[in-house]
């Protein structure tokens, strides 16, 4: 079994200066951050990842919210998130109403697995409203450094609601053979149906799909792709939920065999494949998988640790686990074997897990 004396420290927040605030549409703004130079390495990111922001609250002191990066890691020097107001959305409304140039905002390092395996593969991107944010990062990165072709199907209420409209037109003009942008305006065509989206997607159905937007839109996209016979493994969704806990708080030390007598005697064996490396560890039944991996000094993707961001999603290849909260996973995710490492505890004596 793997034995490591010390665990991996949780991600540390950084205090970033707001360099600019950009009005994108009547209800969406982009916020550009400058991260202190000594923390720049911690904020290297992949296209499609997100930042977690600390937002002041009169009732709880602060709340944490996740916002996708719209900037491109290879062509943009600064980090940029784009925030669209949502009805009764405390975080989005506070940011749009209160943040201005020169303010300081606490950020957790980038996280998330909503990112293509390669900038050289052809992609079909699905966005609705503010869901364009991670897709914009993905398509810019693909066009800037890869050879992949990109088709973006982007739904909005009306023409005035299109975030990044001018920049999308400019990119399409500069890359006419690699980027196709298809707009769906509800003011003109109504709500899209699965059949209508399937007809748009059919020429590109052999590509990996990445979708981000309201739950109803993404459900329609899933139905459209299923109707075309596209395997669920080729359709990737980004889903956020409001975080209940405070990921900025100092975490208590993880339980170990020394601090938890049961950990040494009541443990399963886990074989974990992450970043191409295979680790075999003791997995105490009193710990979730994130805790067990950290206690063994293994890097593990996580942000909220409460199942509401999906960063720690992984696949149970062999064995059985239990979860007290399935969080952002839907029925299709669960049927495909996905679990959340921050919620999963061993049920069988052996489990093989793949991130």
Automatic annotation (TrEMBL):
<dbReference type="InterPro" id="IPR039261">
    <property type="entry name" value="FNR_nucleotide-bd"/>
</dbReference>
<dbReference type="InterPro" id="IPR001433">
    <property type="entry name" value="OxRdtase_FAD/NAD-bd"/>
</dbReference>
<dbReference type="InterPro" id="IPR008333">
    <property type="entry name" value="Cbr1-like_FAD-bd_dom"/>
</dbReference>
<dbReference type="Pfam" id="PF00970">
    <property type="entry name" value="FAD_binding_6"/>
</dbReference>
<protein>
    <submittedName>
        <fullName>Ferredoxin--NADP reductase</fullName>
    </submittedName>
</protein>
<keyword id="KW-0411">Iron-sulfur</keyword>
<dbReference type="InterPro" id="IPR017938">
    <property type="entry name" value="Riboflavin_synthase-like_b-brl"/>
</dbReference>
<dbReference type="InterPro" id="IPR012675">
    <property type="entry name" value="Beta-grasp_dom_sf"/>
</dbReference>
<dbReference type="InterPro" id="IPR001041">
    <property type="entry name" value="2Fe-2S_ferredoxin-type"/>
</dbReference>
<keyword id="KW-0408">Iron</keyword>
<keyword id="KW-0479">Metal-binding</keyword>
<dbReference type="InterPro" id="IPR017927">
    <property type="entry name" value="FAD-bd_FR_type"/>
</dbReference>
<keyword id="KW-0560">Oxidoreductase</keyword>
<dbReference type="Pfam" id="PF00111">
    <property type="entry name" value="Fer2"/>
</dbReference>
<keyword id="KW-0285">Flavoprotein</keyword>
<feature type="domain" description="FAD-binding FR-type">
    <location>
        <begin position="11"/>
        <end position="117"/>
    </location>
</feature>
<feature type="domain" description="2Fe-2S ferredoxin-type">
    <location>
        <begin position="268"/>
        <end position="355"/>
    </location>
</feature>
<dbReference type="InterPro" id="IPR036010">
    <property type="entry name" value="2Fe-2S_ferredoxin-like_sf"/>
</dbReference>
<keyword id="KW-0274">FAD</keyword>
<dbReference type="InterPro" id="IPR050415">
    <property type="entry name" value="MRET"/>
</dbReference>
<keyword id="KW-0001">2Fe-2S</keyword>
<dbReference type="InterPro" id="IPR006058">
    <property type="entry name" value="2Fe2S_fd_BS"/>
</dbReference>
<dbReference type="Pfam" id="PF00175">
    <property type="entry name" value="NAD_binding_1"/>
</dbReference>
């Amino acid at each position: 079994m793997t034995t490591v004396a010390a665990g991996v420290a949780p991600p540390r927040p950084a205090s970033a200066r707001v360099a600019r605030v950009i009005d994108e549409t009547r209800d969406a703004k982009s916020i550009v951050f400058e991260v202190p130079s000594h923390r720049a390495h911690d904020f290297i990111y992949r296209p499609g990842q997100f930042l977690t922001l600390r937002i002041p609250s009169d009732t709880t002191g602060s709340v944490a919210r996740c916002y996708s990066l719209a900037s491109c890691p290879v062509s943009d020097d600064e980090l940029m998130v784009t925030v669209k107001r949502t009805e009764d959305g405390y975080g989005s409304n506070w940011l749009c109403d209160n943040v201005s140039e020169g303010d300081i905002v606490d950020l957790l390092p980038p996280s998330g697995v909503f990112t293509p395996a390669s900038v050289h593969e052809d992609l079909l991107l699905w966005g609705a409203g503010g869901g364009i944010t991670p897709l914009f990062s993905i398509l810019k990165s693909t066009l800037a450094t890869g050879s992949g072709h990109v088709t973006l199907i982007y739904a909005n209420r009306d023409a005035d609601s299109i975030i990044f409209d001018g920049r999308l037109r400019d990119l399409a003009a500069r890359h006419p053979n690699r980027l196709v942008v298809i707009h769906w305006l509800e003011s003109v065509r109504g709500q899209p149906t699965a059949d209508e989206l399937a007809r748009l997607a059919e020429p590109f159905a052999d590509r990996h799909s990445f979708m981000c937007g309201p739950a109803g839109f993404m459900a329609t996209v899933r139905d459209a792709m299923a109707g075309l016979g596209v395997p669920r493994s080729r359709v990737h969704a980004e889903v956020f939920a409001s975080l209940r806990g405070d990921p900025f708080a100092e975490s208590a030390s993880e339980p170990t065999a020394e601090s938890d007598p049961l950990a040494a005697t009541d443990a399963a064996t886990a074989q974990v494949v992450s970043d191409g490396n295979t680790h075999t560890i003791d997995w105490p039944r009193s710990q979730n998988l994130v805790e067990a991996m950290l206690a063994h000094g293994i890097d593990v993707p996580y942000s909220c640790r409460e199942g509401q961001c999906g960063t720690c999603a992984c696949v149970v290849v062999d064995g059985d686990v239990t979860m007290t909260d399935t969080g952002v996973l839907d029925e299709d995710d669960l049927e495909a074997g996905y679990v959340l490492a921050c919620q999963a505890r061993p049920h069988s004596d052996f489990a093989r897990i793949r991130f």
